[in-house]
């Protein structure tokens, strides 16, 4: 999953457009992008869209962002959408692994009720939206077989911290959000799931988006969420490994295959050892190329 596009579930127009966006995944939103009054219509819209979209031969991964566990809305969200079998649920305001387990039980009940495979629906938590959530990041590892990725949010966190803004004048994130971003990366890798970078809200700033994608890929994130279809191409490009990078990874794997007892090798004048092999194998596994 390189690109994950948010689509408000109460907008039939955006839902229809989202399928042409080229995004690897759609996040059909029932939470912040939908007003309280529009929640029932959004649930029905999400259900109908999922039903139609999941039968397509080539389709994006279909994720639904439900309302938070303490919102009083999540059970109605799940009742409405689970009969249409989404691929995954995005859990906002997740505080720790126990929240994932709580959601997992809710999903298990609805999977049984709807004749869906037990454990089939995955979970992607947004893991930095409350002040306390930062301290729960280490608890995702091993929390649930359903975990399929971990992402972070800077907008709700700014509200939770009472901040004036989350960005510095140069456009970069202020320290609390840099910490949340880095901790999400550590937590996702510790849990052996995909680290997904947060949205870049200023969708007319293409250079800013590209810079943030490049920084995310550099640091180890494997994808990024989007809020507008115009962001998808840049995100897909940034998180698609270049032919040169794939070639180099294949050379590293081949070098160790030819020298199975070597700890360290010389590849074209540069030292390579086990961490390089692991990185190369990870890159090739991600793209599904041998
Ligand atoms: N998914 C699908 N289609 C979208 C879209 C999205 N996220 N965002 C915009 N579009 C469509 C619009 O409907 C419009 O199509 P149209 O001309 O056929 O009506 C086209 O793309 C161009 O949109 P544009 O006029 O540039 O933007 P807008 O003013 O309509 O919408 C936002 C701007 C920010 C309101 C919109 O992009 C949006 O709703 N994004 C998602 C917000 C969200 O889910 N937030 C929660 C997570 S942070
Ligand atoms: Mg939010």
Specify the structural class.
alpha/beta
Strand order of the largest sheet: 5-4-3-2-1-8-7-6
**What gyration radius follows from the Cα positions, in whole Å?**
20 Å
List the domain count as a whole number.
2
- Residue share in β-strands: 5-15%
Helix content: 40-55%
CA distance, first residue to last residue? 18 Å
Say which molecules are bound, naming each kind only once: coenzyme A, magnesium ion
CATH superfamily of the largest domain: Phosphoenolpyruvate-binding domains
CATH architecture of the largest domain: Alpha-Beta Barrel
Form type: globular
According to CATH, what is the topology of the largest domain? TIM Barrel
The low-confidence parts are none
Contiguous helical run count: 10
Q: Mind describing the biggest β-sheet?
A: 8 strands, parallel
- Nearest-integer average pLDDT: 96
**H/E order of the elements?**
EHEHEHEHEEHHEHEHHEEH
Could you walk me through the main structural features you see in this protein, from its secondary elements to its overall organization?
- The structure is a single chain.
- Strand 4 (88-91), helix 4 and strand 5 form a beta-alpha-beta unit.
- This protein starts with a strand and ends with a helix.
- The protein has ten helices and ten strands.
- It has helices spanning 12-18, 39-53, 74-81, 97-113, 155-161, 175-190, 206-219, 232-238, 243-258, 274-287; strands at residues 3-8, 25-29, 61-65, 88-91, 122-125, 149-151, 194-197, 223-226, 265-267, 270-272.
- Helix 2 runs parallel beside helix 3 (74-81) and helix 9 packs across helix 10.
- It folds into two domains: 3-238, TIM Barrel, CATH 3.20.20; 243-287, no CATH class.
- It is of the alpha/beta class.
- Bound molecules: coenzyme A (COA) and magnesium ion.
- Coenzyme A is lined by residues 5-8, 13-14, 17-18, 29, 32-33, 199, 227-229.
């Amino acid at each position: 999953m390189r690109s994950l596009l948010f689509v408000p579930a109460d907008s039939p127009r955006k839902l229809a457009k989202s399928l042409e966006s080229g995004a690897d995944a759609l996040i059909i939103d029932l939470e912040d992008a939908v007003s309280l009054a529009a929640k029932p219509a959004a649930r029905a819209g999400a259900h109908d869209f999922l039903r139609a979209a999941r039968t397509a031969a080539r389709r994006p991964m279909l994720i639904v962002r439900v309302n938070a566990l303490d919102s009083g809305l999540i059970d109605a969200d799940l009742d409405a959408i689970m009969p249409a079998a989404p691929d995954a649920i995005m859990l906002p305001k997740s505080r720790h692994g126990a929240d994932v387990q709580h959601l997992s039980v809710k999903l298990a009940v609805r999977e049984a009720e709807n004749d869906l495979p037990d454990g089939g629906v995955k979970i992607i938590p947004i893991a930095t939206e409350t002040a306390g959530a930062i301290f729960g990041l280490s608890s995702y590892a091993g929390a649930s077989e359903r975990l399929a990725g971990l992402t972070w949010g800077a907008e709700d966190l700014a509200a939770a911290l009472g901040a004036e803004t989350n960005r510095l004048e140069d456009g970069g994130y202020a320290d609390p959000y840099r910490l949340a971003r880095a901790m999400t990366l550590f937590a996702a890798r510790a849990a052996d799931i995909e680290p997904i970078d947060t949205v870049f809200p200023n969708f007319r700033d293409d250079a800013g988006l590209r810079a943030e994608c490049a920084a995310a890929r550099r640091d180890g994130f494997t994808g990024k969420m989007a809020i507008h279809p115009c962001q998808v191409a840049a995100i897909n490009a940034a998180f698609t490994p270049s032919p040169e990078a794939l070639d180099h990874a294949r050379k590293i794997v081949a070098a160790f295959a030819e020298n199975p007892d070597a700890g360290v090798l010389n590849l074209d004048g540069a030292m390579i050892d086990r961490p390089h092999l692991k990185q190369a194998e990870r890159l090739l596994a991600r793209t599904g190329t041998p």
